[in-house]
Amino acid sequence: MPPRATATRPVGTVTRGTTNPNRLRRMDRWIAAVHGAELRRAADPVAVDLGYGAAPWTAVELLLRLRTVAPHARVVGVEIDPARVAAAQPYARAGLAFRHGGFEVPVPEPPLLIRAANVLRQYDEGEVAAVWQRLCARLAPASASGRSGGGLLVEGTCDEIGRRHVWVALGPEGPRTVTFATRLGSLDQPSDLAERLPKALIHRNVPGEPVHAFLRDFDRAWAAAAPYASYGARQRWMRAVRDLTADWPVTDAPVRWRQGEVTVRWEALAPRA
Q: Three-class SS string for 160-228?
């Protein structure tokens, strides 16, 4: 279990803090596409960039990208290392603030978005469920009328320059989907993304586990789609994903596949008990 918060100690541990400009662009594009309407409907939409690292680039970029779909969005960068918070203050401006904290998410209002990229990588697999539960409890709740699905937690891992990325999307009720995203020109086969599986899944890429079966089937579909490679990697990816839909609950449409993405229901990939 993560440590408890006290008046002076946030919940969690300091990460390595490595970051690069534009590293989270694939995640940001997806968030804007699938959660933009929810953010637009809110009078004061707040997003949290949790664990932004040694430099505030990802929080700055998140604000810019969210405002393309929700002009009133605000972003709060939250870091557990107070020195990083102090270093980020020169970048604060209207709609962008930086605060010291951790998994307790020290913002007064329930956020409509929490993004936690490359944060849980250093934690044990057994700690993930408790962290997810804590963060989901901080999200804005779904409305009784069904007009709002509530806040969204996006937690995942990417490589150092953002070419390969896998994330889990969770609502107030828990995990919903898993998204695989890649720069298609850098991909030899879909299972290359296995090294970027989030902590909840990375140790489950073994025979007998659903995520292993999914990546196996994805590689087979990719191989079968080889004739489409003459039209480019995008066309090959789209054909492979279309074939996957016969056996796996893919939740998105070709407009997202064209971006080098595919999203699958969490229940299909969740670790076996």
A: CCCCEEEEEEEECCEEEEEEEEECHHHCCCHHHHHHHCCHHHHCCCCCCCHHHHHHHHHHHHHHHCHHH
What separation in angstroms does the CA of 77 have from each of 11, 45, 87, 101, 257?
A: 15, 14, 12, 9, 30
Q: How far apart are CA 35 and CA 69, in angstroms?
A: 9
Nearest one of 148, 147, 165 to 156, comparing CA atoms: 165
Distance CA 160, CA 148 (A): 34
Alpha-carbon distances, residue 261 vs 75, 101, 179, 194, 235 (angstroms): 25, 32, 7, 14, 12
Query: 174-182 and 261-265: which strand pairing?
Result: antiparallel
Encode pLDDT of 126-175 as tens digits.
Answer: 999 999 999 999 999 988 777 778 999 999 999 999 999 999 999 999 99
Pick from 156, 158, 154: nearest CA to 135? 154
Question: Whole-angstrom Cα distance, residue 220 to residue 271?
Answer: 22
92 is written with which tokens? 């604060």
- Measured CA to CA, the distance from residue 110 to residue 90 in angstroms comes to 26
As a whole number of angstroms, the distance between CA 39 and CA 62 comes to 13
CB atoms within 10 A of CB 2: 15
Instruction: Write out pLDDT tens, residues 77-99.
Output: 999 999 999 999 999 999 999 99
- Give me 250's structure tokens: 């893919």
